[in-house]
From TrEMBL:
This is Peptidase_M16_C domain-containing protein. GO terms for cellular component: mitochondrion. InterPro entries: Metalloenz_LuxS/M16, MPP/UQCRC_Complex, Peptidase_M16_C. GO terms for molecular function: metal ion binding. Pfam families: Peptidase_M16_C. Gene3D superfamilies: Metalloenzyme, LuxS/M16 peptidase-like.
Length: 178
């Protein structure tokens, strides 16, 4: 469901300032950003969550600005997410889920992934119940547990002078909470 908060954006979208995601509204016209997408790969006992983005890569300040915006949004999800934002993300997740199950081929692919990731196939009623049970407290706890103060894996292609250092990225993954 965290993917629903950030969503995806690229420079061809006409909805940058009016996007449903507050994060896309903030970051879409800054730092030479061309494309942005969260990803989540999960299995029974492990997973990988992160962000893939493409930027002009002209200078370090732009790259740092993008990373700072990403990490700021993660901090917002861990500490200050509202019920209204959670409801919006739940509805976006439902819409995306049902759109991805419209054809037999899509349903077969979904079933195969469910078997691979979880070992069983959940019914749509079970999925709907699980989505309905997610509230802002659950999301805060999840982001705080799995994203806050965690190591990152960074990879880049292009000018190394414009790539954010690991130490800078790692230091920004934690913050003081009152």
């Amino acid at each position: 469901m965290l993917f629903s908060f950030a969503g995806q954006w690229d420079v061809t979208h006409a909805t940058s300032r009016t996007a449903p995601s507050r994060w896309v509204q903030k970051i879409s016209h800054e730092h030479g950003l061309q494309f942005l997408q969260h990803f989540n790969i999960h299995y029974k006992d492990t997973g990988l969550f992160g962000v893939y983005y493409v930027s002009d890569g002209d200078d370090l300040a732009n790259s740092q600005g993008i990373m700072r915006s990403i990490q700021h949004e993660w901090k917002h999800l861990a500490a200050a997410i509202s019920d209204e934002e959670t409801t919006l993300a739940r509805n976006q997740l439902r819409t995306e889920l049902y759109q991805n199950l419209e054809t037999n081929t899509q349903k077969a692919e979904y079933n195969a992934k469910e078997l691979l990731y979880t070992g069983h196939v959940r019914s749509l009623a079970q999925l709907e119940e699980e989505i309905s049970n997610i509230d802002h407290n659950v999301l805060r706890a999840t982001v705080f547990k799995h994203v806050y103060d965690r190591d990152t894996a960074n990879a880049g292609v292009g000018r190394t002078e414009a790539f954010v250092s690991y130490a800078h990225t790692r230091a920004a993954m934690s913050w003081w909470r009152l």
